[in-house]
Amino acid sequence: MQALFYVGPEALELRETELSPLAPGESRVRIQATGICGSDLHAYHGHDPRRQPPLILGHEAAGVVVEGAMVGKRVTMNPLIVCGRCEYCLSGRQNLCSNRTMIGMTRAGSFAESLTIPDHCLIELPETLSPVVAALTEPAATALHGIQRLERVLARPLAEARVLVIGAGAVGLLAGLMLRQRGVRNLQLADTNPLRRQTAQEAGLDAFDPVHQALADDSIDAVFDCVGAAATRRMGVAVVRPGGAIMHLGLQDNEGSLDVRAVTLKEIAFLGAYTYTTTDLWATVALLDSGALGELGWVETRPLEEGSQAFADLAAGRTAAAKVVLLP
Q: Do the beta carbons of residue 269 and residue 149 sit within 8 Å?
């Protein structure tokens, strides 16, 4: 089969490779659509020691089971492979599994014509959900998980809050669309890339450039940092109101320091959220299938053989697409 291999910093190669053998309890999925994640770009730049070349990246995918217990079924997948036995798995917090592994990190990922994955990771798709939209399940579930965690600490309903989303990439844009769907009336997205801002505005969201349009300090009830950089953390702490909340979803860097004095004196709830649970994924499939997030024309598709160029374009900020989906 053909697969796109990460072979070193900013280097990808399309190669012929052998099919992986099926282990007991696994299925083989023919990939129909697979998205490029920010973490894939992080690895592409050589900044993720967990992803060692040569490796097939990719973990946002939809396809058809061609071998295994669910043969013939259309599926998306939970890329986290969990043990099912630790206290986190048994309490429904599988994303924190003590023994988790992951496709596209510790084993071959979805930038290929097919992959093997444990059956318990597969989620059957409704016939009405296209593979390209289904490939958004993973980033959309990440946004949903973060929203649900933040909702639990706000003093008032989220719909009443003044909300800021930092970053108009896939997770940020999906978070904005979900917040709008949940009735948030005062919502803004911040992004320094004019192409991303244009995409967000075309999706019906209010986007601005935080470099040239600074928000007032203590003016926002809830912040979703979907970038996760030193500058965005400083911005979030500055603009959030006393008693407000910050959801830290992005993982761009671990630089700088957090103003813990401001966090303490303003009694800010500073939260992190890692991926999603299985129930988050199920709920996200239903949400995407409902069409409640509106038109998803901001998704760009390219063939797998153009994957290397797609990575280069994303890294250089040359595309307005919040998500590029590769089609094997």
A: no
